[in-house]
Every structure is written in structure tokens, then in C-alpha cells.
Write a structure and sequence with these properties.
By secondary structure, this protein is α+β, with helices and mostly antiparallel strands. The protein contains five helices and seven strands.
């Protein structure tokens, strides 16, 4: 099901962890409209401004999936209010994920925006980090406009 021009509901259900563990992560009806609003207010504007394809790495999480990935107990991913995303690796425009983050801080309304960095273990060579953006959206009145940098 299409949510906005460049985002579909299926992208928010997809989870390797859910598949591996046999968890049914279909988005319940109450969360579908919230995800559509998240797309309309946040993700599609980012996509339109930069013109780069966006990869949703974690969208909706049913409670079992949230437990499996050790998400926060009150995670907004369980409410259909949050998504984690990166730029797809086939992006050739030279746009960096951090550019998106900075632009979002200045131009968008959101509840929480988090720059997430997690070290990747590597057998050899330089250590590298996995980076992604977590963003959530409630509604214009309830949005807290909180910005965090998360270094783990
Ligand atoms: Zn997240």
C-alpha cells in the first residue's frame, strides 16, 4: 500500500529479525495512518528536498519485535510514530546522511530526531561506524522538537 509518492507501508513492516524469528510484523490499522503522517510530514519532504532514495531500516515494530531488537519499552516504533533510515547505498549524488539530519533540524517539525552511531566490529582494517537517523512524529501540537546525538 502506497503511503506517499516514494514510501509504501511494506517498507515499514520489513524486518530481517522478524523474518528470522517468525514474528508477524504486519502494521495494525491504528498505526497505518500515523505512518502515513510520518511520511507526509517528515520522510517525503526529506526525499523531495535531496532527491536521494531513502532506506527504512526499522519502521513499525510489534511488541514482540521490539523486545527482540531490545527497543525501549515505550518505543515510538510500536506506535507507528517512528522510523530509522539511511540513504540507500546506490546514491550517487554525494549527499551525506548528516546533511539530511542538519536540514531536518532546521526545516521540519518532529517529536524526536536522533543521530544514531553504533560501532561495527571488524576483523581487520579500520573500525567503521553504522549510522542512521531515528525520527518520530506525533502531531503538530504534541511534537517536542527534541534533538539528540546518540554515541554508543
Ligand atoms: Zn528508532
Amino acid at each position: 500500500m502506497k503511503l506517499t509518492n516514494n514510501f509504501s507501508l511494506e517498507e515499514f513492516e520489513r524486518s530481517d529479525t522478524a523474518k528470522r524469528l517468525g514474528i508477524d510484523n504486519h502494521v495494525p490499522q491504528f498505526a497505518v495512518e500515523r505512518l502515513r503522517i510520518l511520511c507526509e510530514k517528515v520522510l517525503q519532504p526529506v526525499r523531495d528536498h535531496f532527491g536521494v532514495p531513502i532506506l527504512i531500516t526499522s519502521g513499525y515494530r510489534c511488541p514482540d519485535l521490539n523486545d527482540a531488537v531490545k527497543g525501549a519499552t515505550s518505543s515510538q516504533h510500536m506506535k507507528g510514530e517512528a522510523a530509522d533510515f539511511k540513504i540507500k547505498v546506490d546514491n550517487t549524488k554525494g549527499v551525506k546522511l548528516y546533511d539530511l539530519y542538519l536540514w531536518m533540524v532546521d526545516n521540519l517539525s518532529f517529536d524526536q530526531l536522533i543521530w544514531e552511531v553504533r560501532p561495527l566490529r571488524q576483523a581487520q582494517g579500520r573500525p567503521t561506524n553504522s549510522k542512521w537517523i531515528h525520527v518520530s512524529y506525533k502531531n503538530e501540537k504534541a511534537n517536542r522538537q527534541q534533538v539528540f546525538t546518540c554515541k554508543r
